[in-house]
Amino acid sequence: MPDVPAKARYHHGNLRAALIDAGVELAQAGGPDAVVVREASRRVGVSHNAAYRHFPDRDTLVRAVAERSMGELAGLMEHLIDDVGREDTSVTAANLRLRATGVAYVRFALSEPGLFRTAFAVARQLQHFGPGEGTGESGLNPYELLNRQLDELVLAGGLSPERRPYADTTAWSAVHGLSMLFLEGPLRELPDAERQAALESLLDTIERGLAP
Q1: If we measure between CA atoms, which residue out of 25, 126, 15, 111 comes closest to residue 68?
Q2: Helix-helix angle 91-111:192-210, to 10 degrees
Q3: Architecture of 1-56 per CATH?
Q4: What confidence tens digit (pLDDT) does each residue in 42-83 have?
Q5: Average pLDDT of the residues in 193-199
Q6: pLDDT given at position 127
Q7: Which of 8, 75, 121, 201 lies at a CB distance of 3.0 to 4.6 Å from 136, suitable for a disulfide?
Q8: Is the dihedral of CA 194, 197, 199, 201 positive or negative?
Q9: Domain 63-210: homologous superfamily in CATH
Q10: pTM for this predicted structure
Q11: Do the domains 63-210 and 1-56 match in fold?
Q12: Beta carbons of 37 and 58 less than 8 angstroms apart
């Protein structure tokens, strides 16, 4: 997102979107705890009473920012999947598209840690995202994009139907865990080259584990 003050983006009749923009800026700087309705309204240049008409409490604004964040993650996944290409239906291409979702996940965590934490704060505070929420241009959210790649891997013959159940949970858990180790755990000081090597090793392990 360009570094433009939220107030400069506010136009009459579009207050809700401007408040979400301000909330995104707050989340980028400080994660979900920094997303506060009063501060978002101050940045936009309206009274907090006006803001509360759109976001009656902090949780509703955090959820909106989390949905935007999840949509950004979905968009990055789509971009890397498109780099592989969708036309090739081979096992190799299906595995590359699956790997692209993992690369996008970790890349987003490292490049936008505040938005990454906010995206997953909602799962703890409110509820998981449902269909049509936190989506990219495809209309799919990150979890749905992961599942689509796994389903395509089954069709390509790279994953047996009997092993498809919970493959999404396994893959998601692996990349989320590595992301958190990079952000907050003992791997946070790793040089970029070693981070990349660790990610590639993890993705190799997932691919071997899913292979028939």
Answers
A1: 25
A2: 140
A3: Orthogonal Bundle (1.10)
A4: 999 998 888 888 999 999 999 999 999 999 999 999 999 999
A5: 97
A6: 47
A7: 75
A8: negative
A9: Tetracycline Repressor, domain 2 (1.10.357.10)
A10: 0.89
A11: no
A12: yes
Q: Where are the domains of the chain?
A: 1-56, 63-210
Mean pLDDT throughout 119-131?
64
**For the segment 140-192, what is each residue's pLDDT rounded down to a tens digit?**
999 999 999 999 999 999 999 999 999 999 999 999 999 999 999 999 999 99
Rounded-to-integer distance, Cα 189 and Cα 132, Å? 37
Residues 118-132, mean pLDDT to the nearest whole number: 66
**According to the 3-state scheme, what is the secondary structure of 92-106?**
HHHHHHHHHHHHHHH
What CA–CA distance (Å, rounded) separates 86 from 98? 12
Tokens of 13: 């009749």
